Amino acid sequence: MISMNCMKEAKIILLSQRSVCMCVCVCCVCVYMSVDVNQPSRITADCLMRTTASTLSTSFHTCSLCSSIKHCALHQSTSSAMAFTSYQVFLAIVMVATGSINTLATKWADRSEAPGRDGVNRPFNHPYVQAAGMFLGELSCLLAFRLLYCHYKRKDYTDDQLPPSIKGNQSFKRSVFALPAICDMLATSTMYVGLGLTYASSFQMLRGSLIIFTGILSIIFLNRKLKMYEYLGILFVIAGLTVVGVADMKSSGETKDAKHIIIGDVLIILAQIVTAVQMVLEEKFVNSQEVSPLQAVGWEGLFGFLATVTLLVPMYFIYVGQGIFTNPYGQIEDVVDAFFQIKNSWQVALGFLGTIVSIAFFNFAGVSVTKEISATTRTVLDSIRTFVIKVIGVSLSWEKIDLMQAGGFGLLVIGMFLYNDVLIRPCLMKLKSKKPDDTYRDENRPLQQDQLGANDSISSAGQKVNDP
User: Fold this and answer.
1) Over the stretch 298-310, which tens digit does the pLDDT of each residue have?
2) How many helices (H) and strands (E) does the chain have?
3) Kind and range of the H or E element at 121?
4) Would you say 274 and 186 are in contact if contact means Cβ atoms under 8 Å apart?
5) How far apart are CA 74 and CA 42, in angstroms?
């Protein structure tokens, strides 16, 4: 006889899967828009139909679109931007799906109750154990890399023939991942504490504050000069964070303690400062190593796992009482109690396992999307992930529809798109620089450089170069 609880949990799982599937189509469309929007769009359907394979594969034949002796870089870049490989689409879908599952699985474990070491039934509140599980998932990428690398090497593949997931520098310094991993550990564990106190969708939205701190630190340590649209994006993000925070406080009386909501939101925002430091360190020391995605995730997971497990020992002996933490004897973290709860509840065990598995695929997909497509595409996909989490949270009755929070989310998305130069500014620049249709009045006449628009120029090699 199936119990009512099992039927309810099965219904939740089916509902979650359905919501994720509904957003897959949105994901694909936004991936296309995020990449294609930065490319010139003054190509008619008739021109595209007359583009031949030989034209795209060489720069020494006459372009069938504009009759230029060298292949027209305008048409070449546009045609290539419109072609997405199945691998790129797969990465985008994996990133959205597993990223959503990761946050939802962690929140599901937090909401699930199970008997602890003292036999008392309580929610699973073990953020540092969950952080260790997350790094364990990332660490598994090293094993996957080694298995795939040995598999292809046995087939006599050269380094250039290896797939993108394992292709990269093999003689990099492993130690460069130590500092970013420690920052990741501090940020992740702090965010998990905040996630236990606030809503899953708010958790995802408030992570948008990373833009503010990344911009500030990049100015200080990387000597980067922000452009006007980046400052404008930061202002929109600040406005969005303010609206989301106010919306959380207004809705806290219905389901949660207002003080815990505020503490959770503040912890999530503070964690983004540490994450910004991590990103600056990675840009300064790690990116130049040209490491394969699986190895990058795996080595950071190894150092992060070792650091977290080491800290779990003193945390077991530090007593802080039962305020934010609800361990039976008042420690910051009680590993023994965590394992008792995982053993006593399949819901907690499934949520914890979901965190471990999903984070490995999510981080691999995220790094691969940045490498294979663009960082701007990753920004769009992260926004879709926030939307997916909100939809599923509402469908599972974890949250309610809040128009004020939706408005804050809209401001956050605008700010992220402005800062990363995605969709909004490129579209406005296109409209501003758009020429009359007589640009193509003579198809047999070579397209001159001054006809390419204010923001486009052609290098001597016949390739498009964007002005900074």
Assistant:
1) 999 999 999 999 9
2) 17, 4
3) strand 121-123
4) yes
5) 9
